[in-house]
Fold Adenylate kinase.
Amino acid sequence: MLNIVIFGAPGSGKGTQSENLIKKYNLAHISTGDVLRAEKASGTELGKLADSYMSKGQLIPDELMIDILASVFDQKIKAGDCKGVIFDGFPRTIPQGKALSEMLEKRNQSISAVVSLDVPEEELIERLINRGKQTGRNDDNYETIKARLDVYYNQTTPLKELFEKEGKLYSIEGVGTVDEIFGRISSVIDSVK
Ligand code: AMP
């Protein structure tokens, strides 16, 4: 199984690139943000709880997120004949990173690669403001974007060191056309599969 973590700040292009990658490599897509937004849209208790964090740009508590991830992973694997999974938006903290490795280990699997999309902050903000105008996402406003970027720099970037030590981190330039960036990510995946 090919288990790829697509890693990067909000607005770095994880969702866009995941859409292309799942088609090319026949992967299932797990976007924890999409899972939470679907819960919110259905009006579930989990959705309401998640929104109280998401609307402020904060992270949902690790324990809850780790349980959700494991159950979504098992559902996706059962549902299809995919060749692996792309993790988009998970892990976002050191405990989540450790939990992901443990969850995969229990299923006799491992992380194949962590692809980090590196994009300068000014470009991230511009992309997110534009996305907010196009989609109406309520966390794509300037104040919440700033909070999300702070969370990313403080809580999520320490994961890079963890994956670097494990020899799993591949950092690529996340600036250019979608096709150019897709080409860079594909080269990494081709080298680990
Ligand atoms: P995203 O769509 O990946 O940008 O996620 C949107 C929001 O969902 C984040 O700002 C968090 O509030 C929440 N979220 C998504 N994934 C996670 C995660 N792995 N851990 C905690 N919160 C998350």
Q: What stands out?
A: The chain has one domain: 2-192.
